[in-house]
Design brief:
Helices cover 29% and strands 28% of the residues. The chain is of the alpha/beta class. It has a domain of 147 residues: 3-Layer(aba) Sandwich (Rossmann fold), CATH 3.40.50.150. Bound molecules: S-adenosyl-L-homocysteine.
Amino acid sequence: MNELDLSGIGMTSLRTRFRLLDRLRQQGIDDEELLEIIGQTPRHIFIDEALSHRAYEDTALPIGFNQTISQPFIVALMTKALFQGGKLSRLLEVGTGSGYQTSILAQLADRVYTVERIKGLQNRARQKLRLLGLRNVQFRHHDGGMGWAAQAPFDGIMVTASPRRVPQELVDQLTPNGRMVIPVGDADGQQLQLITLEDGEMQVEVLEQVRFVPLLSGTK
Ligand code: SAH
C-alpha cells in the first residue's frame, strides 16, 4: 500500500474526515489531542475495500468473522473516558478486532498490549499497525477475558466486547490508580462503564447505553 492509499485522497476526501470530527465535537468529544489523532488515522485501511467509501461515517461496519469495527463516536467516548484522569503508560485492550481502536490507543500510551481470540483478525490488525509504523503494540492470540497476567499491572484496560459482568481477573490487573472502560450486559442491553479503584474498592460510573458483540471464551 502506498502513501496515497494511507491518506485516502481520491477514495475518501479530507472533507469527509473533517465532517466526522465536527460530528464528534457536536456529541461532546472535546479532547483536541484525541480529535487530532482520529482525524489523522486512516480508518479506511481497517475496512474491507468494498466498504471503505463509508469509513468516515459515524457508524460501525462489518470486518468479517461476524465482527464489526466500532463506531467512531464510541471509540472516541471510550478513549476520552480512559484518558480523562491524565496520561496512561501501559494499556491492555481486550478485543483487537480490526485494530482501529488499537491504533488510536497506541498514539496516546507508551505501550499497548492487545488480545484477540480470532487469529485471522489478529493477523490483519498486526499488518495494519505495521503499515502505520506503530511499533509499541504487542499482540496476543488468546481469550482476553482473563486479561494478560504476565504483562500486568496496567494503568488502563479497554474492553471492546461485552461480558455479562466485569471479570474480577481484569480488575485485579489494574494498578491502584488504574481505569477500565468496559461494556457490561447482554444482547438485550449493555451499559458502557468506567471502572476505577478507590482504596481497592471498585467504583462504577455509567457512561452510555451501547451495543457490542459478546465477550466469548476460547479461541478460533
Ligand atoms: N475495537 C475493535 C472492535 C472489536 S469488536 C475495532 O475497532 O475494530 C470485538 C472484538 O472482540 C472481536 O474481534 C472479537 O473477536 C473479540 N473478542 C470477543 N471475545 C473475546 C475474548 N474473550 N478475548 C479476546 N477477544 C475477544
